[in-house]
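Quarterly update from the structural biology core.
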Amino acid sequence: MRPGVLGIWNDVAAEGFAHLEKWYTREHIFERVGLPGFLTGRRYELISGGDHRFFTFYEADSPAAFTSKAYLERLNDPTPWTTEAMGYFRNMVRTACEVAASAGVASGPYAVVLRADGSVKPPPEIDAMLLEAAAEEGILRVQLLTAAQGFTRADTAEARLRKGDKVIAGALVVECVRLEDAERVAAALDEDAAARVGISGPFVLGTYGLLCLLDKGSLAGD
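Predicted structure, tokenized:
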């Protein structure tokens, strides 16, 4: 099975902003990345474009991490802090994906994210296309994600607290060195560029700046 990514886009109710900021950086990212199969967690804030203020990106060894017994136990038994936080989420988009193609290994502080709300059907030459893109100056990593069927659970206690999440077809994520690199990439990602990587139908393009990053190796005892 290919590597997995859990992509989340959301807004936050104004009255819950301070709570969510502290909750995420003091409890939630550590709880999630500490779960079996999870590798890294990243949280970004919108700089330009887009339709949601925040983008959260969890990498896992496979999409199976998102239906594991340990993860589902957490989703169905949220901490008191998490229970309160769920009530402040707005316009939630959440989908477990697999990495259909990827090039580059380093992470960057800026991410250009083309979220595919319609469909994603990677062409046969997608690996070569992403290799070429990742070789461009200022680009560190490019990933094309496709929804992993059966791995996005909507019947958990946390999901019920949020009262409905939207799911997507996938996303193209381009990590960049500097903001000007991200702006250049975003300017080039028009409808034709989306079609070349297999994205059709409605999509949303946003440029995000990294707020926090945690990898498994940073956790005590790993």
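The chain has one domain: 4-216.
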